[in-house]
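step 4 of 6: structure.
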Amino acid sequence: MHAVYWVIYGTVILFGVTVVAAFVWAIRTHQFQKFQQGAVSIFDPDEPVGEMTDGFPGESGPPPEVLDCDQDELSKLDPPDPTVKGTSIRHE
Amino acid sequence: MSDAVAATVEWTPEKRRAYFARERAGIDASTRLPVLTFFAASVFWLLVGTTLAIIASVKMHWPEFLESFSWLTFGRARSAHLDTMAYGWTAQVGLGVSLWLIARLARAPLRWPRLLVGAAGLWNAAVLAGAIGVLGGQMQSVEWLEFPPFVAPLLALAFVVIAMSALTTFGDRQEGHIYVSQWYLFGALFWFPWLYVVANVLILFQPVRGVLQASVNWWFAHNYLGLYLTPIGLASAYYLIPKVIGRPVYSYYLSIIGFWALAFFYNSAGIHHLIGGPMPAWLITYSIVASVMMLIPVGTVAINHHMTTVNHFRLVLYSPTLRFIVFGAMSYTAVSVQGALQSLRTVNEVSHFTHYTVAHAHLGVYAFFTMTMFGSLYYIVPRLTKWEWASARLIRLHFWMTAGGIMLYFLSLTWAGWYQGQMLNDANVPFMDIVKYTLPYLRTRSIAAVMLAVGHLVFAYLFVLNLLHRGEPRRDPTILGDVKEYRDMIGSEGAPQ
Amino acid sequence: MSLSDQDLMPEPEPNEMDPSKQRRETGEPFNVQDLHAPIIREQAEPRDGFEPVPPWMSIFYGILLFWGGAYMALYSGGFRPDVYNEKAIYFGKPPGGADEKADPIAVGRRLYTVNCAACHQASGQGAAGKFPPLAGSEWVLGSPSVLGRILLNGLQGPVSVKGETYNGNMPAFGGRLKDDEIASILSFIRQEWGNSAPAITPEQIAFIRDAVGSRSDPWSADALQSLPAEELPGGDAAAKEENSSTEGSTKKESSGGT
């Protein structure tokens, strides 16, 4: 039975520490700041905000008015700069 | 290095586009071998699991079906269906999608692709041995862990190799921000080995005694869905919905709160499977509260996915990926709310041990997870094979067969299960009456299973065509240019990695 | 989640492509409107990724958390490992469990099966000539002083029960069983098989054990019948009270244990 307690308490402590460490690391590297830039970090100049990236094969995409709605505002979000590493968010 | 590039390249908007397209195509190419291996293997197991599912389903209302094959008795076929779907299909397709997402989100090439193919081989050998073991009668009497015990170390080893590769890739990241999908993926990659190893040790190798085994069993089985499949499904939806629509998620910081709330609450939710069992009351009450508290992360996910999609809902007409994933995201909200209500003692008294629970499980694993994975595959595979899907019509057929099939499945079994539960609780109703009452619904379930099987065959056909580059060559929006083509556009060999 | 203006403002980046940055480097005067444009723009935009939690949702989450706390408090069985019925206890009211005195009749039944039933039988009828019956026996229903002494020291020689004579050998249990165990057995046989006599308390057995002292020989029936009357602690009234509280706890335990 002793092995069982080692398994249970050992893994609980190990994972508890990992979670706390991940959380502390995230705060220290400012992961919980600048959410707006974080949200657009999956876009880039080639696949910018406002452009659809998927479609049925052999068919034309949606009529422009479907995507048109707020292109204008969204396009104002700055795309990241390719020459800088870690472009979307610069760590202080 | 960036200085050197900046000096030689004048960054016109066109070149900026080309630079990012090239980088993305290179990263996708680095994942091609392992990810396609995982996808191909998972599609194979999907077909195996579907066959076993149909056999088990038909036996419920036609017991003489295939009765002369001892290795296809209901108990074995049903367990083999569960295990091939769990470890053959869902786990592997999830791993493939995770590896692709991790490389993309880190903006770094995937590490150790050949080793990953080896890990995929080990994983599939283990699943094959396990499935044969289950059908051959070497089954363990533990739900979700039916494989013979020797399979567990192999699966765990393969998974650890895969997780190490993912972590190393993450270490190479160029992107400073950890996107919400990455949080979910790392959660899944850490949690699965923990769950799987602890559950196997405490049940098969150093068995704990009595009801403690049951609690470990349901802690594992429920968390396999909640801490492994769910994070991968959500990571995929959080990346692909905004990416396909071209619009950031509605409320990004809610999504981060959602992740940490899931990490906090889900682990405790599994014991609600043992309501009515000889467990200390506080433990079951605690898990019920945790199950209901899951409405918090679910609410954040629901708001994000639905509000991101709501003004663009018509786009599901134009994107196969979006169509499947939006279906999956809506199912996630539905299954989670249903699950929270179902964990309450008053509801559970009726619904537990009936077909209602089976319907609920399929709403989660199929309507949410599997549909989300189909959507992800429609997005990822053309980018890896550099070949467009062969037929829009077959994709639509796949969608309607699977979406229609799972809805028929869910509705018929939910209805049957609820009345079955009420009749079971009434001592005046003879048991055979209850069995006869459920028969029409079980037949409906078999029809739904056949619909799903048709959908899967269509998908497997499309997938094979795509791997073999069959069909007419197209340059549609999902296809990216070659690395070389973009290099020519930028005109520099020395661009930053 | 509080956001300062600094968070909202895009950081100035050294970027060759941006003409406004170049202007700054070449020392040309800033255009105030250009400088402020990004700030104004940031504020006016739909703030994707920044949507606050909708108020109804905060309220809903608050209600959920409140419900969770209340449900835990109400249905956790005092967080005890031995309580299986979530409705057994509320807010610290003790359950039928280890803290409460066990039901002496139930304990007595178990001890009787182990220690006495071999001779006196589970039916309490004994065996003709050797082991006297307990059901309806005047010895069992009679004085606790006599009954306690038989258990503590044993009984040897002929004894007359319900008009029949038995000649067996009742062993002494004083060395093997504790006071509360003897009291449980006696209470059990006085209330089983249609018998109904007041229960016997551990204190009464302790008193008798004290009175017997260091005697180790078994009693004879004559010696017991010629005992002087003694005042046991609690008396009959106490025994009755004990009996009724016993039944109360029986009920409590059976509801807490299922």
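step 5 of 6: annotate
 - The CA atoms of residues 13 and 47 of chain A lie 43 Å apart.
 - Residues 1-41+69-92 of chain A form one domain.
step 6 of 6: archive
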